[in-house]
User: Fold these one by one.
Assistant:
Number 1:
Amino acid sequence: MPSSAIKVFGEVLFDCLPDGQDILGGAPFNVAWNLSGLGVDVEFISAVGNDSRGDTIREAMQDWGMGIESVQINGQSTGVVNVSFKDGHPEYEIAHPVAWDRIDVPPSGFSPSQWLYLGSLAYRDPHNHSAVESLVEAEGSRRFVDINIRHPWFDERWLNKLIHRADVVKVSEGELSEVMGGARVESDDQIFEAAEAFQGRFQIGRVLVTAGSQGAFVIEEGRHRVEAMIAEPIVDTVGAGDAFSSATLLGLLSGAPLAVAARPAAKFAARVCGLAGATTHDRDFYHL
């Protein structure tokens, strides 16, 4: 397996819209794409099917300058999410099993990198457990875990494997409330208190809580608040959280404290809200 500054592990998929459009995405894929655009040497570890969608993904990655050596091809179909709308609100059906549910550990194992990004969704199938655990063993604590609760594909029992002793865990205020048993996380103090309890429960190094218009909250040798940035105009909020993760990782890679890295990350996430979708092919967009 190639060595890289940042390894990103997880799903790549197509959002299949009612109008027939297929939009490439998946939180880890968005993070890897953004990091590559930001000039980071990134290795994306995932899997696609031996089908036209899988070919499209690999071609898009190559056109963007990303390596495809760690995108495995297996007998499952490439991942899709069927999107429908009910009373104007989107509903998602995430197909299972698909190719990214079957990511194998390479014969030589995983080489270490400076940072590992993990999302929680790719842990939903037991087949991936050995790959995740092998990555965690190779990287130690230098991992950034993004909790993405997508019911019914989430089980709190996974958290000990995914986030115990992780360096950074990112979670939204709603997800924080859920994993902390429904704790109230409305005021600043409530968010900070729940985040500190979360940190202690799983022995996490640092915690990053995103809270929409309230900004972000950081537990890192004390409490830190990051003001939200307002996008003008807002096209949609798709991929804003992934953009936040990407730019935060860029700052961490340079050695910045989490609270410092999160400030330009908030600005970058706001800029992504001005896009239609989570990513762009415009190289100039990634000049921070």
Number 2:
Amino acid sequence: MEDTLVPIAFFLMIGTAIWIVVYFRFRTRQELQLTIRKAVETGQSLSPAALEELAQALQPKKSDLRRGLIWLALALGLFVFSFSFDDGDAFGVAAAAAFPLFLGLAYFALWKMGSDDKQGGNA
């Protein structure tokens, strides 16, 4: 019985964590839309600068950089953890570190491309 509870609890935790992230992103977007809707209904004019600032609330500039740092830190942690094994399992853990490593590098590339686009439009 205990052999089946551990994997079930593990996958329930993963599912719950994903659900929490998705739910709070949905709530943030919903509240932003309600704010814009109330402003329009009360007759307030929304300047392009205000709309751009509200749009940036959904996509913060530093989010890709932060995500990249988190994934790279996870990859480094897995790689260092692989040195704690004496047998052939160390290679498997070190190889598993490649997944968050490449995700982190991809987020860094997205962050760099996004910052170049912002600078290119202002010049």
Number 3:
Amino acid sequence: MMYYSFRDDDMQGKIIKGIAGFYYVHAGSKVYECKAKGVFRNHGVKPLVGDDVDFEVVDDGKSIGNLTRICPRKSKLIRPAVANVDAVLLVSSIAMPQPVSLMLDKCLISFMMQNVPVAILWNKTDLEADESIIEIYEKAGFETLRVSAISKAGMPKLYEFLQGKTTVLAGASGVGKSSLTNLLCRRAEMETGNLSKKIERGRHTTRHSELFAVNRQSYICDTPGFTFVCIDALKKEELKHFYPEFYDCEGECRFHGCMHVREPDCAVKKQVGSTIAKIRYENYVKLYQEIENARRY
């Protein structure tokens, strides 16, 4: 990435939304509508939601400015395209809609492939539902949180998790990401004044990745609902590394480099139904075969 010079009177902020060539920058208690200078386009540099930037104020009364510099990024997600992400919370409902473990696994793998810490946030825990799936993922080694956007149960722990981070909320439509975002950012709206008005918050269908300030040090990114998750770049030999519950026993397999699918005397297969949940192993086999078949064509 290239970085550009800036003047002493430039301000600093964070891009919270980008639409049609306009970038909305949160700085202090205001949101500025900015355009990217031509130097960015000339060098093929595209600002991203989550970028820390310097900008010059063109009209302070109307909160209009120009981006002058993109600060160095510490991380970058491809799907969704967000910069400087500290963690991903994969949001799933315990019911309505029912969780689909295969899709959960695909999403977890997708973010793990991008080297971003990922945890699972289970919403709608106020509903009567079988919570055994939560225990399956906890047992597999994933950090989990339980909340209800209706009853507010679990919200203090969620606030604690978010402190000092930029966290992406990801998951399918209907699991409650936007409802949680509205709850989490209610106090921030009071602090930032015109934040909601400037970026037209309040819509329940998320069409663009967008950052919201939980407080001055913490942001969450509400992303469009995932309808397709791609792990095409993953090789079948690599898939097992994304199932942490395999780690403790795979060294005991008869064959070095065991894929835990067709080989005899496989220690992983022997633990299915015990230390390894059956549904997780079945998902692993399905994804292994999916990757294997894709490579044939």
